[in-house]
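Re: the 50-residue chain
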Amino acid sequence: MRDYYKWAKEFSDKYIKPVAEEIDEKGKFPKEIFDKIKEEGFFKVLVPAE
């Protein structure tokens, strides 16, 4: 089983942390990161297949 907390932390450190200040200042979340979240499969974690 995948360690989801570690996976999320690694993702966050790589894609979100570098632009976190800009996200806070603008109050907007970059579409590119949102698309990457989808691509990585994080939404599947929240919604069971059945």
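The radius of gyration is 12 Å.
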